[in-house]
Design goal:
Oligomer: single chain
Number of domains: 2
Distance between the termini: 64 Å
CATH topology of the largest domain: serine acetyltransferase, domain 1
Structural class: mainly alpha
Number of strands: 5
CATH superfamily of the largest domain: Phycobilisome linker domain
Low-confidence stretches: 1-8, 163-167, 186-200, 213-221
Strand content: 5-15%
Largest sheet: 3 strands, antiparallel
Strand order of the largest sheet: 4-3-5
CATH class of the largest domain: Mainly Alpha
Number of helices: 12
Order of helices and strands: EEHHHHHHHHHHEHEHE
CATH architecture of the largest domain: Orthogonal Bundle
Length: about 260
């Protein structure tokens, strides 16, 4: 058989693949890139599947087609915050969570400068993608593995993005924004149960920032603080970065503050 599957995670299309092998790869790509979404026959990329079957494109090329499709865009971009879109791209295309604010900022800049397709290409054309998946391995969740140059906190953050795989892409707000922006540890917590459970959406946060030297001279402030509700955090963080600020911490505000 020309298809290698190991630990139900790694799927590679090898030379001389049978039709069953190709179909297994196609299913794996849809599952990984679309976050386990059900794909109806009318939504499948028939021409892209044909290109892959005929050897006109590699698995990497098919991943690119799916990630640039209207289906991916409608699920992961149109109704998502910019940070959530980037989180999902890391998860679906690199198999891990973003490590720090510099990675997020880099992809925000890529999208702002080049648009949607440039943002997708930046993952698939990266050295990281090629060194881990090459041309014919389907991307897979790898944040639970020790990797050179990847911080240990990546495990916790990838777990937050991937737990409950069938439903974990629900929601249009970023899940890691406060931890990544504030360079904070990401805690693994059990899912809340019961109607009285309290989640992050009801809390308030203090964002502390350091401005750039030029901005500090103009405003006469080198340090600024913002108190925001959870649902305002994404927009506020984006505004800070856009205006040249650097986030130094994000902390929960006590109800007595």
């Amino acid at each position: 058989m020309a298809l290698w599957v190991a630990d139900a995670e790694i799927v590679e299309l090898l030379p001389n693949a049978t039709e069953d092998d190709v179909q297994a790869v196609i299913r794996a790509v849809y599952k990984q890139v679309l976050g386990n979404a059900h794909v109806m026959d009318s939504q499948r990329l028939a021409s892209g599947e044909s290109y892959l079957r005929n050897g006109d494109i590699t698995v990497r090329g098919f991943v690119r087609l799916v990630a640039k499709s209207d289906l991916y865009r409608s699920r992961c971009f149109d109704n998502s915050s910019p940070y959530r879109f980037i989180e999902l791209n890391f998860k679906h295309l690199l198999g891990r969570a973003p490590q720090d604010q510099s990675e997020i900022s880099e992809h925000v800049a890529t999208y702002n400068d080049g648009g949607y397709e440039a943002e997708i290409d930046s993952y698939i054309d990266s050295e990281e993608y090629l060194s881990n998946f090459g041309e014919n391995i389907v991307p897979y969740a790898r944040g639970n593995r020790t990797q050179p140059g990847v911080k240990n906190v990546s495990f916790n953050r990838t777990f937050v993005l991937t737990r409950g795989f069938a439903a974990n892409d629900i929601g249009n707000q970023a899940k890691l924004i406060s931890d990544v922006a504030g360079n904070l540890d990401t805690k693994i917590t059990a899912p809340a149960s019961g109607s009285g459970a309290i989640d992050n959406t009801g809390k308030r946060y203090r964002i502390t920032t350091a401005t750039s030297a030029a901005t500090a001279r103009l405003n006469r402030f080198s340090k600024l603080e913002y108190i925001v509700d959870y649902n305002q955090m994404s927009q506020q963080v984006q505004n800070i970065i856009k205006n040249g600020g650097k986030i130094t911490s994000i902390t929960e505000v006590s109800q007595y503050n």
